[in-house]
Amino acid sequence: MRLEKLLEKLEYECVCGNLQTEVTQVVYDSRKVTEGCLFICIEGAVFDGHEFASEVVSKGAKVLVVSKDVELLPEQRETVTVIRVENTRYAMAFISAAYFGNPADKLTVIGITGTKGKTTTTYMVKSILENAGRKVGLVGTIEVIIGDTHIHAQNTTPESYLLQEYFSRMVECGCDTVVMEVSSQALMLHRTQGFVFDYGIFTNMEPDHIGPAEHSSFEEYMACKGLLFKQCKVGIVNSDDSHYKTVLEGHTCQMETYGLKEGADLLASNLKLSKKSGNLGVEFTVSGLLDMDVEVATPGRFSVYNALTAIAICRHFGVSGENIKKALLDVKVKGRIEPVKVSPEFTLLIDYAHNAMALESLLKSLKEYEPGRLVCLFGCGGNRSKLRRYEMGEVSGKLADLTIITSDNPRFEEPQDIINDIKTGIAKTDGKYVEICDRKEAIAYAIQNGRPGDIIVLAGKGHEDYQEIKGVKYPMDERDLIADILRGK
Q: Domains in the chain: how many in total?
């Protein structure tokens, strides 16, 4: 493809070379340079692509996209085209979109941002729309789904080049829609530039992802979430969230709201918890922009919010109420309040809750079902904040009838040291606990000591299928562990 074509939606300066240069490939990793490629110099947290400029040219790169001066040999300047832009990540998004033929223009693109609920809602939307006959791709924390192909996700929202490649593959396999999670990091790093979202959705906002290599403050976190509403045609937001007006400051899209409080354009009311054969769910009424009764087969108020979000999106696609109701009953999301049948006597759930906020929300929701006992099994990741361990220990100690402390991803720390930190948090409460370092043994203990009416939640791992120890990721899926335990292995 001709370089000039790749740059047509960007402001740039041609420092040297020829805009008619033919580009064979777009590359941003110096290890993947090929003859005739365009190389984008990205400034990362560890490496700066500008430092590899001379090396990539010697490997065959014909175009460099830079945001500052680079060192090249005199003879290299005669053979390479250098394009200077203000921000190379921003430029990469537009270059990638052009390289793949602007595939987002051929899709209806739905982007969901927020602290919680993104993953579950994307699967709900996919289920509803596919039930109504659309072909839907998905990009999210767990995986990327393109037709029958499932690709393990490395980031909630991939780099712009990879995202555009996924869009292109979706178009090729006949998708007409894509629903995706949009992280604040992705918005901050311009991964979602180069196209316009048809629908942008805000679920909720809580202090998270604040610290080194993430966001410097809660205010920056909110501002980054708000960028979505300057990149979409229609915004759909949870008006119950106290931060939603701040997030929407400067928005350029049409707006509508949903929530459980009066005043929302789409309102959920008459919530009723349901408990059928050990399966936990919730029923509610929707009114306003759409009128219907709904039941979801997952527990808690947050399940109502997730379902209401999905309904608010899918009503724009003309989906019938019956199709919505059927899809919401059928949808299951791996590691998100996921029920695993082990006994008719008690309920066992797997959930990704891996910080104090998520764990508190989960346990409070489960307590509303008035279990015989609420049993919480969890550990904490190594080489992470000790404060998270104290807080999670305190939350579980206050809300669970029994806490089973075990190992999560110890990484380069000793599992027992992490457990001791969790116990420091529990010591602030009068909660009962046991400590079993081996996670499989801990799960076996939970199952073998389950009592009628108990709700047992395995928290922290969720969809993860590994355990990271000393830099090695060992296969470990809690569903497999449970199956082995039930078989007596």
A: 3
Gap between the Cα atoms of 367 and 362, Å rounded:
9
| Cα atoms in the 13 Å half-sphere on the side-chain side of 41 | 25
Q: Which amino acid is at 191?
A: R
pLDDT given for residue 17 in this prediction: 95
pLDDT at 213: 55
What CA–CA distance (Å, rounded) separates 363 from 304?
Answer: 16
What's the burial of 13, exposed, middle or buried (CB within 10 Å: 0-12/13-18/19+)? Answer: exposed
Q: What pLDDT does 111 receive?
A: 98
Residues 18 and 83 in one domain: yes
**CA-to-CA distance for 317 and 197, rounded, in angstroms?**
15
209, burial (CB in 10 Å: exposed 0-12, middle 13-18, buried 19+): middle
Q: Give the single-character DSSP code of 21.
A: P
Is-above-0.85 flag for pTM? yes
Tell me how many degrees the CA angle 96-216-460 measures, rounded to the nearest 5: 80
Cα→Cα distances 265→16, 178, 295, 344, Å: 55, 24, 20, 40
Same domain, 223 and 292: yes
